[in-house]
């Protein structure tokens, strides 16, 4: 409605201007033209005043009083053509603001444009088009070439190439085959595939991201409120210069000539537009930033904390070492462990199977003890695989520090298989670049054991380690960060990270494969499974704030120079009115530079 109102005001001013020109120069009725412009100017000045009061009451910054004063002053001294130009530029500036904000937000809104609307349900060999909201978990769906994947699911037939750029920011096509998962919002390639729905539409990845995009509105950030504080001294300065020019010259026209070049645009438009442009730039790099406040805080971050599993590490345990007793073959130990665990759903069992040989011996009498391990009979031997006290109930095993499964056969200890959560390949360079950016305090806050956490932290270059922390304890660690080391950002991916993401000054979720709860709790979400995007987010936020400050200061300096020149009576009111919009245009275009920030990725 506001956008429509701004455009209507602009067209009203244009229409009255055209009629006034005809009256004054076509029909030689200058008085009628002056009356028409005066009535219109008074009406719009009143509407601007009402808008200013409403926005101030809502806690936001309203139209600067200088704009209203400039219109009234030019009308009062009979400079109605200058008043018409000021009105044209003010309403045009509002329309330009709407256009600029829309242009800056175009990348975010493109996600909404690609929202899946329908799905093709397969029932008894027939295909039926249904609304995406009607898809249930377990439904068999057909995805045709070029269509948008309607919900998260698993391919059951066929193979294809998907475009996931709207979800991850990665333009490279991704090949998918039977058994692999696909995300809603991905665009199918040239082949039809069949899939089974793993989530309803409301719970699918794309809808989660859409909810985040809807939250990414241009809310006034703290920096905008700082810009608001510039308004009072700037307004006082403008009135002092205008009043002094009037008093010294004795000519009230000087007062109007000064005020028409005192544009409020740098204070009320430049910073918000720069922030929206920065948010748009972040989205191009696969980073959803929910508010302008997040950009400002992220630009000032002095401490960054990380969860370990799934954030610093890949979150997938892999076999690390095979430690055997004397005269026990490593390959045989791994084979026995994998064969015994092959029917288990435990995460370590799955990791064992990935490292196991293709041919495993036949097992019988399989029995799994929850929280203990699995036992089975192999070639007549009773093999036990699991925790140390399960493999050898007599407590004779000396435990290793790493995550491990212990193996015994006929109550004889054979050895153990250790596992490690492999580091993300980009983790080391991420920490190094954050240090280079001046973020000297890097923390790991993990629920894992102290020895493991310290080993990981040392490998990647993290400064502090807080291990064996429950979710509540993670919050306390964040709260204890000293004021001189704030703001603090927290990076995590799991459900247990959600409270920490809310507590931190800036919560950043690894949303590509992380929990929905973490993404919804965070201030920013990294859509691509790349930890280094945290570095890119900091760089974009700092560059955005730099552009925002520049746009404000450039506008203020230009306005001040023009006011001083106008105070000597060398800038007629009608020329000053034109120069005012030049200032507006310069500051808005300067602010939009934040949308094309060059960041090395």
From TrEMBL:
Transmembrane segments: 7-25, 31-53, 65-90, 230-249, 255-277, 552-575
Gene Ontology annotations for the cellular component aspect, listed alphabetically: plasma membrane
Keyword Signal among UniProt keywords: no
Domain P-type ATPase A: 115-214
GO molecular function: ATP binding; ATP hydrolysis activity; metal ion binding; P-type cadmium transporter activity
Membrane-topology annotation of the record: Multi-pass membrane protein
Keywords, ordered alphabetically: ATP-binding, Cadmium, Cell membrane, Ion transport, Membrane, Metal-binding, Nucleotide-binding, Transmembrane, Transmembrane helix, Transport
Predominant place of localization: membrane
Record flagged with keyword Lipid metabolism: no
Enzyme Commission code(s) on record: 7.2.2.21
Classification via InterPro entries: ATPase_P-typ_cyto_dom_N, ATPase_P-typ_P_site, ATPase_P-typ_TM_dom_sf, ATPase_P-typ_transduc_dom_A_sf, ATPase_P-type_domA, Cation_Transport_ATPase_IB, HAD-like_sf, HAD_sf
Catalytic reactions on record: Cd(2+)(in) + ATP + H2O = Cd(2+)(out) + ADP + phosphate + H(+)
Xref: PANTHER family: CADMIUM/ZINC-TRANSPORTING ATPASE HMA2-RELATED, CADMIUM_ZINC-TRANSPORTING ATPASE HMA4-RELATED
Family per record: Belongs to the cation transport ATPase (P-type) (TC 3.A.3) family. Type IB subfamily.
Official protein name in the record: Cd(2+)-exporting ATPase
């Amino acid at each position: 409605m506001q956008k429509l109102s701004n455009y209507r005001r602009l067209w009203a001013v244009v229409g009255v201007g055209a009629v006034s020109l005809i009256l004054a120069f076509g029909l030689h009725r200058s008085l009628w033209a002056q009356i028409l412009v005066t009535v219109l100017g008074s009406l719009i000045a009143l509407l601007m005043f009402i808008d200013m009061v409403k926005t101030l009451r809502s806690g936001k910054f309203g139209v600067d009083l200088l704009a209203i004063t400039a219109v009234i002053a030019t009308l009062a001294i009979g400079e109605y053509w200058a008043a018409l130009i000021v009105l044209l530029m003010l309403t045009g500036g509002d329309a330009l603001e709407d256009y600029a904000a829309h242009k800056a937000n175009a990348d975010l809104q493109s996600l909404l444009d690609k929202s899946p609307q329908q799905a093709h349900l397969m029932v008894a060999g027939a295909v039926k088009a249904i609304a995406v909201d009607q898809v249930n978990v377990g439904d068999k769906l057909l995805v045709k070439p070029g269509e948008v994947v309607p919900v998260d699911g698993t391919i059951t037939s066929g193979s294809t190439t998907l475009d996931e750029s709207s979800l991850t920011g990665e333009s490279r096509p991704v090949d998918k085959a039977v058994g692999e998962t696909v995300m809603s919002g991905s665009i199918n390639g040239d082949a039809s595939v069949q899939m089974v729905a793993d989530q309803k539409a409301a719970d699918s990845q794309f809808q989660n991201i859409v909810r985040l995009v809807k939250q990414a509105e241009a809310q006034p950030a703290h920096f905008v409120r700082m810009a608001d504080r510039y308004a009072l001294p700037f307004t006082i300065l403008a009135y002092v210069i205008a009043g002094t020019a009037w008093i010294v010259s004795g000519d009230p026209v000087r007062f109007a000539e000064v005020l028409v070049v005192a544009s409020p645009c740098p204070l009320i438009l430049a910073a918000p537009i720069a922030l929206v442009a920065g948010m748009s730039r972040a989205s191009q790099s696969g980073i959803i930033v929910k508010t302008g406040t997040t950009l400002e805080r992220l630009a000032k971050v002095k401490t960054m904390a990380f969860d370990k599993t799934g954030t610093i590490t890949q979150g997938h345990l892999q076999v690390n070492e095979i430690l055997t007793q004397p005269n026990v073959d490593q390959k045989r130990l791994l084979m026995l462990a994998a064969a015994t665990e092959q029917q288990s759903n435990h995460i370590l069992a799955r990791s064992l199977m990935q490292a196991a040989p293709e041919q495993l011996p036949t097992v019988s009498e399989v029995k799994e003890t929850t929280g203990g391990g699995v036992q089975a009979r192999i070639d007549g031997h009773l093999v036990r695989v699991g925790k140390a006290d399960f493999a050898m109930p007599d407590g004779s095993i000396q435990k290793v520090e790493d995550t491990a499964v212990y193996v015994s056969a006929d109550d004889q200890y054979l050895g153990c298989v250790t596992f490690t959560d492999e580091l993300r390949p980009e983790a080391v360079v991420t920490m190094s670049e954050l240090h280079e950016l001046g973020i000297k305090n890097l923390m790991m806050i993990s629920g894992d054991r102290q020895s493991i956490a310290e080993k990981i932290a040392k490998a990647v270059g993290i400064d502090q380690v807080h291990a064996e922390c429950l979710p509540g304890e993670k919050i306390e660690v964040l709260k204890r960060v000293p004021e001189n080391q704030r703001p603090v950002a927290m990076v995590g991916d799991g459900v247990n990270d959600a409270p920490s993401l809310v507590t931190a000054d800036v919560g950043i979720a690894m949303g590509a494969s992380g929990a929905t709860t973490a993404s919804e709790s965070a201030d920013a979400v990294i859509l691509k499974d790349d930890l280094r995007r945290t570095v890119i987010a900091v760089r974009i936020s700092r560059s955005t704030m730099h552009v925002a400050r520049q746009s404000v200061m450039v506008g203020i300096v230009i306005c001040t120079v023009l006011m001083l020149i106008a105070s000597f009576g060398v800038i007629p009111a009608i020329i000053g009115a034109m120069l005012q919009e030049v200032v507006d245009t310069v500051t808005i275009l300067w602010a939009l530079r934040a949308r094309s920030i060059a960041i090395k990725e």
